[in-house]
TrEMBL record:
Protein's recorded name: Glucose-methanol-choline oxidoreductase N-terminal domain-containing protein
Segments forming domain Glucose-methanol-choline oxidoreductase N-terminal: 278-292
PANTHER family: OSJNBA0019K04.7 PROTEIN, PROTEIN HOTHEAD-LIKE ISOFORM X1
Database matches in InterPro entries: FAD/NAD-bd_sf (IPR036188), GMC_Oxidoreductase-Related (IPR051871), GMC_OxRdtase (IPR012132), GMC_OxRdtase_N (IPR000172), GMC_OxRtase_C (IPR007867)
Taxonomic lineage from the root: Eukaryota, Viridiplantae, Streptophyta, Embryophyta, Tracheophyta
Family designation: Belongs to the GMC oxidoreductase family.
Signal peptide: 1-25
Length: 573
């Protein structure tokens, strides 16, 4: 990688502790540099303007701020306003919250699958199931990333926000069931991606408090960074002189009151605008700024800065299918603590004792009653803990768990199109789930493994004998999990079950793919001073759950960009 780069790393390390010492962790909710966008000046200048304070944007900004002046524009609010809201027990309530100030902006894909997009400082790490696991070596090799710097960057993230999860009764029984089902060997606890069954990391601490990418801003130099909340970027501003390459100059953003602000790059030619708005936000904003398929841009009257037909293409969502398993025994509150990594391309994960809304609990009770020929009141007792207050989301806990099956590296891919010119609205998204038969076969095989684990000896204390495998499938088929039509044979045919009940695991990626829209340095092809650092550049979803690698990439690219700024073009090795 070069002696001068490691010298640069040491300088960054020293400058970090010169500014922060070792006590800044106590100050996480009180960042002095985070403000509402209404407080932003009408015009301001920065070395780096980062669009999106999410899973990649926060570590990227923290790193760049060590040696440059940085602005972060986040369209959502702060997770620190209500410190307990992101915690483990509120996982599903937060995803189901449709209020204007919610952490998740709901949308439904053109495939009829319900989905959500984060809008909060910290991004998806504020609303996900918290599992932390590194990428497989093949992903890192394909992306051309340096192994030593990758490991250094992972460790930088893990020092702040990664923990070993507790393995209590329900999770332990299901893990042992997976081992019985043949997902071998037992790899114990590790962050690494290894075939078999393993306990991975979590971003929840021992008190079930969530630690997010926003916590990585503790590393930032507070004198060189500004973060504006509820700042919606309308477009990137470009300089398009004759005989010169198009160059990013800054952005226009709007605060919560509708006032416009201009953030511009300093005159230093190494200054950049960096998109970190995610797999939906980054391609959407490129199009709104005039970079994308010209035919689509002209349809909305957008001036074409550069015709780039690959923007929005190659968008992929890993299909998810689930089993809901009521338990005769009490279960712990748990989100994803372990994973079964199969060799045929399926991941098995699970959660237990989570909170449902009262309406969802009634849906489950009604579906169970129909299957067992019971009353709703009787069937409710099969899966639900006592409700102290029916109006409280937090007291509506299920006695049982949900087992997830995720298809790895789906071949099926889709695309993103503009719905309108409002950057606050989600674009039109099509994922084409199971268009490739190979993806469907992975799902079928994975669901079979999940069923085998449920009916294993190890898991026998946490299932009802009266509920057959067919009954568990029928329960899912009868729940309003998506808007897709149901086949009459959905509970009998695993192929139909996978297609009819497919959901999202929120690991969608692509739309600004490496080699198609950005180069190996994540610079937008054909444009100066513009990069994209987020999951929109991925050709596949890294590891079992992408957040670890997205955060790592923010740190990794921050160091690379600073090295380029001060030492010239960085070396690959």
């Amino acid at each position: 990688m070069g002696f001068e780069f490691w010298m640069f790393l040491s300088l960054v390390y020293v400058s970090h502790f010169h500014f922060h010492g070792l006590s800044l962790a106590e100050k996480a909710p009180y960042y002095s540099f985070v403000h509402e966008a209404t407080m932003a000046p009408e015009v301001s200048f920065y070395d780096y303007i980062i669009i999106g304070g999410g899973t990649a944007g926060c570590p990227l900004a923290a790193t760049l701020s060590e040696s440059a002046n940085v602005l972060v524009l986040e369209r959502g609010g702060s997770p620190y306003e209500n410190p307990t809201k992101p915690d483990k027990g509120n996982f599903f309530p937060n995803l189901l919250d449709v209020s204007p100030s919610s952490y998740a902006q709901e949308f439904t894909s053109e495939d009829g699958v319900y989905n959500a997009r984060a809008r909060v400082l910290g991004g998806g790490s504020v609303i996900n199931a918290g599992f932390y696991s590194r990428a497989e070596p093949e992903f890192l090799k394909q992306a051309g990333l340096n192994e030593a710097l990758v490991n250094y960057s992972y460790q930088w993230v893990e020092k702040k926000i990664a923990f070993e999860p507790p393995m209590l009764q329900w999770q332990s029984a299901l893990r042992d069931g997976l081992l019985e089902a043949g997902v071998l060997p037992n790899n114990g606890f590790t962050f690494d991606h290894i075939y078999g069954t393993k306990i991975g990391g979590t971003i929840f601490d021992g008190d079930d408090h969530r630690h997010t990418a926003a916590d990585l801003l503790e590393y930032a130099n507070p004198y060189r960074i500004k973060v504006y909340l509820h700042a919606t970027v309308e477009k990137i501003i470009f300089e398009t002189e004759v005989f010169s390459r198009t160059r990013a100059q800054g952005v226009v953003f709007e605060d919560e009151l509708g006032k416009k602000h201009w953030a511009l790059l300093t005159k230093d030619y190494k200054s950049e605008v960096i998109l970190s708005a995610g797999a939906l936000g980054s391609p959407q904003l490129l199009m709104l700024s005039g970079i994308g398929p010209s035919q689509q841009l002209k349809k909305f009257g957008i001036k074409v800065v550069m015709d780039q037909p690959m923007v929005g293409q190659g968008l992929v969502d890993n299909p998810l299918n689930v089993l809901l398993v009521p338990s005769p025994s009490p279960v712990e509150l748990s989100l994803v603590s372990f994973v079964g990594i199969t060799r045929f391309g399926s991941y098995i994960e699970a959660c237990s004792g989570i909170s449902f809304t009262p309406s969802w609990s009634r849906s489950v009770a009604k579906a169970l009653a129909a299957i067992l020929n019971q009353t709703e009141q009787s069937s409710t007792k099969l899966f639900q803990e006592g409700i102290l207050n029916p109006e409280s989301l937090l007291d509506t806990r299920i006695r049982g768990g949900i087992i997830f099956e995720k298809v790895k590296d789906p071949i099926s891919s889709g695309y993103l199109e503009l719905r309108n010119m409002n950057p606050r609205d989600n674009p039109k998204v099509t994922f084409n789930y199971f268009q490739a038969p190979e993806d469907l076969m992975k799902c079928v095989h994975g669901v079979k493994i999940a069923i085998d684990a449920v009916y294993s000896k190890s898991f026998s204390n946490f299932r009802y004998e009266i509920l057959s495998a067919k009954a568990l499938l029928e329960l899912i088929v009868n729940l309003p999990l998506n808007q897709r039509p149901r086949h009459l044979t959905s509970a009998f045919s695993l192929e139909k079950f996978c297609m009819d009940t497919v959901m999202t695991i929120w690991h969608y990626h692509g739309g600004c793919r490496l080699g198609k829209v950005v180069d190996r340095d994540y610079k937008v092809l054909g444009v100066e001073a513009l990069r994209i650092v987020d999951g929109s550049t991925f050709t596949s979803s890294p590891g079992t759950n992408p957040q670890a690698t997205v955060m790592m990439l923010g740190r990794y690219m921050g160091l690379k960009i600073l090295q380029e700024r001060y030492f010239g073009k960085y070396r690959k090795k």
